Amino acid sequence: MTNLKQVITWSVLIVLTTGFSSMSLGSESSSHDVEVIEVTGKRPVSFFKKLVNSAELNFYELYNSITTNRKFKVECKRVARNSFSRVKEKKCIPAFASIAMYEQMDKMTSQRAPREFLGENPLFLSVQRSQLKVATDDYSEQQLNNIMEHLKTNPKLLERYNELVNARNLYQERLELEDK
Fold this sequence. Notes:
Elements: H1 2-29, H2 45-66, E1 74-80, E2 88-94, H3 95-110, H4 115-118, H5 129-153, H6 155-179
Antiparallel strand pairs: 1-2
């Protein structure tokens, strides 16, 4: 009895489908214009920024596990944009840059903070970028050479580097679209 019900149900569906398809074929043969609606969308800039951040973290995570020089290891963390702001941004800083920053701050405090280090306001200690640049230039070049050597010998690191470059390119393209 249930098989008979299923056969009847299927045959009714086939008849209805055939009827509707013939009705639609008849309407196509008439000279009515078909309206086409095209919907486009775009992802927000924040999506691409997150893509870059993720690719950057993945790259440096693998690089840190590969490199043997502790000064070349990179730490990514969220820090305030400036000393007056609570807005944080992600920065990836190699260990040698952090060490140079602390050395410069230590130098400032050990010399009783002369005016050249403090600037106009002695309440806020700031390390001069020029002094940091001098302290980190050699290490920056050495780290770049180290990364290049690892990219040549480690295909997984090269893959993550390419992902990072692609993510940055997508982000840049999206920013350019935003400017238009």
